[in-house]
Amino acid sequence: MSSGASDLPSSVPFQVRDLTVSYHRRPVLRDVDFVAKPERLTALVGPNGAGKSTLLKASLGLIPIVSGDVRFFGQPLAVVRHRVAYVPQRTSVDWDFPVTAIDVVVMGLYRRIGWFRPVLARHRRTAMQALEQVELGPFASRQISQLSGGQQQRVFLARALVQQADLYLMDEPFAGVDAATERAIVALMHGLRAEGKSAIVVHHDLQTVPEYFDDVLLLNNRVIAAGPVSEVFTPENQRRAYGGKLVLLETVEHQLSLERPRS
Amino acid sequence: MSELLSSLFDANSLDARIALTAILASIACALPGTLLVLRRQSLLGDALGHALLPGIVLGYLATNFLIDDSPTGTMAAWAPSLRITAMLVGAAIAGILCAVLATIIEKSGRVEPSAALGVVFTGLFAIGLILVRRYADDVDIDASCVLYGHLETVVFETWPGTTLPMAAVSALAAIVFNAALLIAFYKELKLGTFDPEFARAVGIPAGLIDIGLVAATAMTVVATFESVGSILVLAALVVPAVSARLLVNRFFSQIVVSIVVATLAAVGGHLLAMAVPHLVILSSENRPLEVGTAGAISLVSGLMLVAAAAFGPTNGMVWKAWRLRALRQRVFQEDVLGILFRLAERGVEVDEACLSGQVAGSLDRSPAAIQRCVRQLQSSGLVDQTNGIWRLTAVGTQRATEIVRSHRLWETYLARNLGWNDEASHRVAERFEHHTSGFVRENLADELSHPGRDPQGHEIPPIADAP
């Protein structure tokens, strides 16, 4: 997996080298090495506290890294920020905030609109198209608290879609969504891949990994295994990632943690 | 009252000047206040009100050299504005320091944000008090002014050559400053407030915006300090924004409504202070009593908040109660219609005794309540009385048919598809019948391939053609 080469071709959407991240001096990620392949959907799986969300956030500079190096398309993030879209966990924001669904989607265009410039009608049209893509057209002017969990998740996806990025980093897009939304997200991901784009997705439902994804990164503070699902997503590797804990219990535990309100 | 109002519109009157200052100070505070409330950082306003003290004192002390050594201690004409600028800058720095220290303590001490803020602002306030006592004891810092502000005397200090109070000018400057920032960074403030992580992921420096908001809030607090005081500034920052939160559900209208509420509270508070003269009466030492116009403004804005909570369009308690009452009444009326329909099916003649007995009994309501309900139905033209016998009118029969049809279709569905017994399906159908639209009802009938009778053998009445 480690290429050893210092310069990667710009076709490699995402690469981390020797990444170490700590929370309060406790390492959450230790010496993580990973190279994502272009035009592939990669599942990021591992038990709670394995550092999956941390890997995404640290890569995006949202939390400080202790050591290591992150490249997007062979470049530091600041150079290619427009090619990377981030879908945070749905529970990370206050859904009572006084904005409509389309307002949230337009936020994905803020960077492109630029400083000191207002949102124009054509920006709203672009956002509307993205909302229609996730089948939320009729809900555009709904206040976001009046949307179901699955609809809120699709609003977040639409916000990422308008960025027209080449790499999508998604943090648990399938958490707590209805079956229709789950199908919509999968269709969307496959559509992105067909357009030559890539996605790295924190995922919890181990059963659907082979169906939804091409590659998998098994993580538990360090890399357990990475590669094509068919090759590395073995029961043996899953056991190693989950530290012998029963996978079923892990899933239940995760469901409980989702239902618990976050402070 | 007309006298009060006319003095308010006389630009040179003292009242007009107090009102103007109050309005400007309230609007200045409402702008950053809206963002603080949306960020769930309301406490920050209170914290800043206290934490700024050392900055203000140091700004004051740093400009001491401006006063010449002559016994009269006069200043150059431009000196006061330099001194005010120094105090503003000192306050902004103290405010930023407060926010930065609180963040550091929160991160390294792993305590909750409000606890970290509490430690920092009380500490800074204490340092400020020590500075005042040690170096500036001669400074005329009046405790009641610091806490509550006193608009009534502030307005005597006017902008050179005009009757415009200095406090109004500084509040206006704060409005212009805040509005300019809000317009320039509107998108970034909105996104940074809603989803700071996403903002940073797309390259918008949310951290810098946080600091900017703290600095702007700090400067606003200083600019309006004399008018509203350090305790009431919290009310000025937070209450209009919270009222707006209860009234509207868009970011932009949130800001507009906050400003409107702040303005109304300022005018209303001043009128209240004038109408209740002992609130602003000057004591023998020519100092205002502790509750002045600023206090009255806080009171009025508090009342407006209560009104917003009661009458807010979606979450207002009054509307909620009213809607609930209307719903209860509709359900009751439909229940009575349903019973009259069933009695008519069985050929029972409904006289007054039947109403008070059988009808009241089966609905478990008092005869008086049934009487009231039947009169309402009569005035809506759904029932009619001839020769002491109550009957459904054509319209009433139509409505009752819909209800009974829904009820019996649901019973059939629950029994057939879920295998429920008569009692369970009746209880659920009793509730569903009130919330089943014609579309749902006929879909249900299609689904059940139009049954003629329900599980208990009652006819499922067909919908008659509209009369």
The total count of strands of chain B amounts to 2
- Identify the biggest protein-protein contact and residues per side: A-B, 32 and 29 residues
Residue-averaged pLDDT of chain B, rounded?
84
Q: Roughly what fraction of the amino acids of chain B lie in strands?
A: under 5%
Given the structure, what is the number of helices of chain A? Answer: 10
- Sheet with the most strands of chain A? 6 strands, mixed
What are the low-pLDDT stretches of chain A, counting only 5+ consecutive residues below 50? 1-6
In short:
The complex is a heterodimer of chains A (263) and B (467). Chain A is 33% helix and 22% strand. Chain A is of the alpha/beta class and 263 residues long.
Provide tags for this entry.
heterodimer, A: 263 residues, alpha/beta, six-stranded mixed β-sheet, three-stranded antiparallel β-sheet, 33% helix, disordered N terminus, B: 467 residues, mainly alpha, ABC transporter involved in vitamin B12 uptake, BtuC, Arc Repressor Mutant, subunit A, two-stranded antiparallel ribbon, 20 helices, 72% helix, 2% strand, elongated
Describe the structure.
The complex is a heterodimer of chains A (263) and B (467). In chain A, 33% of the residues lie in helices and 22% in strands. Chain A contains ten helices and nine strands. In chain A, the strands form two sheets. Chain A has a six-stranded mixed beta sheet, with helices on both faces. In chain A, strands 2-1-4 form a three-stranded antiparallel beta sheet, covered by helices on one side. In chain B, helix 2 crosses helix 12, helix 5 crosses helix 12 and helix 12 crosses helix 13. Chain B is elongated, with a radius of gyration of 34 Å. Chain B is mostly helical and 467 residues long. The longest helix of chain B has 42 residues, at 206-247. Chain B has helices at 2-9, 14-38, 42-51, 53-62, 79-109, 113-135, 143-148, 151-154, 166-184, 186-194, 196-201, 206-247, 251-275, 293-311, 317-345, 352-363, 367-379, 394-418, 422-432, 438-447; strands at residues 383-386, 389-392. Among the domains of chain B are: 2-236, ABC transporter involved in vitamin B12 uptake, BtuC; 320-392, Arc Repressor Mutant, subunit A (Orthogonal Bundle). In chain B, strand 1 (383-386) and strand 2 form a beta hairpin. The mean pLDDT of chain B is 84. Chains A and B meet through helix 3 of A and helix 10, helix 11 and helix 13 of B.
